[in-house]
Structure formats: C-alpha cells, structure tokens
Design goal:
The structure holds two protein chains of two kinds. By secondary structure, chain A is α+β, with helices and mostly antiparallel strands. Chain A has seven helices and twelve strands. By secondary structure, chain B is mainly beta. Chain B has one domain. Helix content of chain B is 7%, strand content 39%. In chain B, strands 1-2-3-4 form a four-stranded antiparallel beta sheet, with no helix packed on it. The relative contact order of chain B is 0.16. The chains are: A alpha+beta, B mainly beta.
Chain lengths: 210, 74
C-alpha cells in the first residue's frame, strides 16, 4: 500500500499538496561583485507538489517554511522500454538487480559477455535512477496520456519527483497549510522516500572513499 | 501489489499446475498459491520484507546501477 488510507490532518514528509507557488532562480554568471550580474527568477504554479521537509522539522513549526518538489509526469521511455517498470513504476524507489534496472528487453538483447560485464560492474541489488522517486497511481491523481514511439500510448497516473528540483516556500506562520494536503504516504512508502533521499545525498565519490 | 511470480512446476514432477504469487502487504511479503484458473489455494509463506540494515548501512551499501547508456536520466 503506497498511500495511507487514514491520513493525518497535519503535514507529513512525502505528502502530496497543492496550491503552492515555486520559484527557480537562474544565476547565469555567479559574481563576487556587490551588484549581481543578470539573473532570472521563474515562478511556477504546479498543480501538485511533494513535501520534503522531514516530519520532525514540520512538527517544530519551522517558521512556516516548507521544502517542496513539484510532482512531475513520468518519462515515457523509462516506462515503455522496461516491462519491469511497466508492471509497477514505483520499483524505481527500491533497490533491485541490474537485470531489472535495465529491463528484461534490454537484458535479453545483450550478449553473454555484455551481461557478465554488467553483473561484474553492478552486482547485487542497488538503486536505479538516483535522482527520482515515483508516486503510485491513485484515484485522486489525474490521468494523463503517456506517448512513445510508434503509437505506443497509455493513460496512466503515475507521477514522480526529481530530487534536483527542490524549492523552499515560506507560508504565513499563522496559516495552516494542512488544507492543501491531498495524499499521505504509507509508513512503508515514506521510509522508501527517506531512504532514497538519504542515498541521493549520501553517495560518496570514488576519490573520497577511504 | 503483485511483485513476483514463480512457476511451481518442476521438470518430471507430477504436481498439479499452479503458481505462487508474492504479495507485499505493509512490511510483510505473503506468498499465495493460486490454481490454474487463478483461484486462491492457500498461503504458502509469510515473511517480513523489512530491510533490517541501519540507515548508515543502507547509505553506505554501495552505489547504484549505471543505466545511462540505455536511458536518458537528465
């Protein structure tokens, strides 16, 4: 079960919410001068977004500040090229084998040598698509048509967030943003989001390995 | 949510057909035996799907699968 069937009234980490404006600032040439060089601030109003503020920080009221990431449509090539993900797109949230990560179709198209090389490079279960976390289908999430080459299309309501696309939002401290809440993750799904986000920030570059 | 199917027929076995389906339910994984027509025949096994590694162990457990040769991840 991906969503909690008895959501709490307060906001939780991983909740889907609506009604927030998100901003994205382009700093084309970072400058140490007192006056910044040309810049641009984009303001968007996504239909839905995901709360990435940890529950404990929300509980401490954090001055009306929330960290949000817009809920995005999934990528058609990831979906249609990999039948393992077509069965359940939320599988990108969990560690799996290289065979599943590539998908049965791509795996079958590889020679024995290529498969052996991949298995040696990438043994065991690991995360795939590090920057992304999928949100499962739900009746409250609008369906959209996912199109791919040669007339492949399907109405689906899987969504995802991109950890590289995170925004701080300030709400009035006397405002209760819980009315904006649409869906709450189950404990299991929230744990998966926490773990994958920790993995995303916890990856260690080779040169730092001791 | 169905996650995995296993064919229970072994070579040379006279065991009737059927399949075992793994179903994730909360922190449990339940193996259910279904008949040829998909009818429920029984529960084979109940296991915990919880990962008992600590957060530090999970974060340090290793990298991730590089599939960028096959998928556009940008």
């Amino acid at each position: 079960m991906f969503y909690d069937i008895n959501p709490q009234s307060k906001l939780r980490f991983g909740d889907i919410v609506r009604g927030f404006l998100l901003t994205h600032c382009h700093t084309y040439r970072p400058s140490s001068e007192e006056k910044p060089d040309a810049f641009q601030i984009d303001v968007t109003h996504p239909e839905l977004a995901v709360v990435l503020t940890p529950c404990c920080t929300i509980a401490q009221r954090s001055g009306g500040m929330l960290i949000l990431s817009p809920l995005l449509k999934i990528r058609p090539d990831w979906y249609f090229e990999n039948s393992y993900l077509m069965e359940d797109f939320t599988r990108i949230n969990r560690e799996t084998t290289i065979q599943n990560a590539l998908g049965p179709e791509i795996w079958a198209s590889m020679s024995d040598e290529q498969q052996a090389e991949k298995l040696a490079q990438s043994p065991g279960k690991r995360y795939m698509m590090d920057d992304f976390f999928a949100y499962d289908k739900h009746d409250l999430l609008a369906e959209y048509e996912l199109r791919y080459k040669e007339g492949m299309k399907e109405l689906i309501n899987y969504y995802m967030i991109d950890f590289r696309n995170i925004c701080r939002v300030q709400t009035a401290t006397d405002n209760d943003p819980t009315s904006t809440k649409r869906l709450q993750l189950s404990i299991q799904a929230r744990r998966e989001l926490r773990d994958k986000l920790a993995h995303y920030f916890g990856r260690k570059p080779e040169e730092d390995a001791v | 949510m169905m996650d995995k199917e296993e064919n229970t027929l072994d070579t040379g076995s006279a065991t009737p057909g059927g399949r075992i389906v793994s179903v994730d339910f909360a922190e449990y994984t339940i193996k259910v035996k279904l008949g040829d027509a998909g009818e429920f025949l029984g529960i084979i096994e109940v296991g915990m799907s919880q990962d008992f590694r600590s957060l530090r162990q999970r974060v340090e457990s290793g990298g991730s699968h590089d599939i960028s040769d096959f998928y556009d991840l940008q």
